[in-house]
């Protein structure tokens, strides 16, 4: 097996685990704060918006790695074993089939960030013009 094949397998395993976390997020047995942490970690991982721009040497990618890894690790530990196992099984089954869902996921994340940004702009606008009333 070549290094490229090994890298592809590891990438597939990581993608499956991330998808399993997403499936866990949708489970009704998961507490609200675990859902919030998962949503923030997955959203930050997929978002083009960063706290530190990627063009900044070292720190641009380091913040991505630290924030996303910490969010996934903590949320993974907070999930119950049963929920984790069911989500991993479902993720493995879904990822083994070759259905194109990545474009749909990208649209959802993009619309969510657009909505959040719009709400933030409206809030800032109202805050700035509150004293004029």
From TrEMBL:
It comes from the Bacteria. Residues 35-69 form the DUF1232 domain. It is found in: Endomembrane system. GO terms for cellular component: endomembrane system. Keywords: Membrane, Transmembrane, Transmembrane helix. This is DUF1232 domain-containing protein. Its main location: membrane. The chain crosses the membrane at residues 32-49, 108-128. Pfam families: DUF1232 (PF06803). It is a multi-pass membrane protein. Signal peptide: none annotated. It comes from Pontibacter diazotrophicus.
């Amino acid at each position: 097996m070549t290094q490229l094949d090994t890298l592809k397998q590891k990438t597939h395993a990581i993608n499956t685990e991330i998808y399993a976390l997403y499936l866990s997020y949708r489970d009704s047995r998961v507490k609200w704060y675990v859902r919030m942490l998962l949503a923030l970690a997955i959203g930050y991982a997929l978002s083009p918006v960063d706290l530190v721009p990627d063009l900044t040497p070292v720190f641009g990618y380091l913040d991505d790695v630290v924030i996303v890894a910490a969010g996934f690790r903590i949320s993974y530990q907070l999930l119950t074993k049963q929920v984790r196992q069911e989500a991993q099984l479902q993720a493995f089954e879904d990822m083994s089939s070759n259905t194109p869902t990545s474009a749909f996921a990208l649209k959802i994340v993009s619309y969510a960030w657009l909505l959040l940004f719009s709400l933030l702009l409206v809030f800032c606008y109202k805050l700035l013009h509150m004293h004029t009333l």
